Amino acid sequence: MSSMLPNVLSSSNDNWVADEIPKSNEVYVTKRGAKLNLEEIGPKPTKKVALICCMDARIDAFSAFGFKEGESHIIRNGGGRASDSIRSLVISQQQLGTNEIIIMHHTDCGFFTFKEDEFRKNLKSKGFSGPDVDLMSFMPMSSSDINENIKQDVNYLKNHPLIKKESKISGWVNDLKDGSVRRVV
Amino acid sequence: MSSMLPNVLSSSNDNWVADEIPKSNEVYVTKRGAKLNLEEIGPKPTKKVALICCMDARIDAFSAFGFKEGESHIIRNGGGRASDSIRSLVISQQQLGTNEIIIMHHTDCGFFTFKEDEFRKNLKSKGFSGPDVDLMSFMPMSSSDINENIKQDVNYLKNHPLIKKESKISGWVNDLKDGSVRRVV
């Protein structure tokens, strides 16, 4: 019996989530069948807006914030940080015609749970090396007050030299207890 | 009559997409009502996977790739570029327990439509300044062959010193004509 365990474990380890995608995607493609060819919409968001939110797995951005295909750029990174979105935003505004930015932070975010110095030490203790270990900003939240972080991110964008001065910028909290949103800025 | 035009235009200019979010979100919150409190799932993706795709407005990541709330980190940036996802991926893997990465590029991407040098010149001609105009990489696709870009991005991750060596990494194309996906790597 025990000789089988390593195989069982290794087989479970070898499961790729990627292998599940074609089947789920087939359902989506079939459902879309009657609708528009998405290429016909073109790459410019019809609502001229870009939304920034966290990569958090619990956030279904289209459903939670009410977007349909074609309407809004969706930029997602760890923490939903503005400073990690500039490259995308500049292309969004200059090449693809957006003029509004919505920043959406959320409760229970993993970016409240670590400090940068400890995280760097932890990486080194696990054997990771290279200049990024010391130089990359991992962007944990700078305040434990979620409103404060949002205000900082909105101000960051308002003062960034590559963001259009006339941009409409708002900052929000998504409460993951019930999925609701609240505007902060 | 003509004296009213500026007001009409300015009022249409003052419409914020942000103002539409609370109403759409209310529908979502009501629908979710009977389901789990999302905070109870916790910030660690239950499928231990992070998906990277483009910010393109036509991609409804949860529906198109078959994810439910809680299952997968979703990282989105202009082009769905791996090199612009490292910070998020390191936190995803080291703090939040993921060990698989799915890179999903798509057809008709805006990042095929510009060259970096021209884009910098264009920014300057519009009056933008600061070191980022010359130093920031805006990451247009390096090849007109979509498969080539995906292979480059997968290799970039496989060789990055801060990405777990044992990561399961796959590369895909999302065809926006019908929403279908095709695995490349």
Automatic annotation (TrEMBL), chains A, B:
Record flagged with keyword Flavoprotein? no
Q: Which SUPFAM superfamilies match?
A: beta-carbonic anhydrase, cab
Q: Which domain of life is it from?
A: Eukaryota
Top EC group = lyase
Residues binding Zn(2+) are: C54, D56, H106, C109
Cofactor binding mode and count: Binds 1 zinc ion per subunit.
Needed co-factor(s)? Zn(2+)
What reaction(s) does this enzyme catalyze? hydrogencarbonate + H(+) = CO2 + H2O
**Which molecular-function annotations from GO does this UniProt entry contain?**
carbonate dehydratase activity; zinc ion binding
Q: What is its EC number?
A: 4.2.1.1
Keywords attached to this Swiss-Prot or TrEMBL record, sorted alphabetically, are:
Lyase, Metal-binding, Zinc
Give the function comment from the record: Reversible hydration of carbon dioxide.
Family classification: Belongs to the beta-class carbonic anhydrase family.
- Specify the protein name: Carbonic anhydrase
Q: Which organism is it from?
A: Kwoniella pini CBS 10737
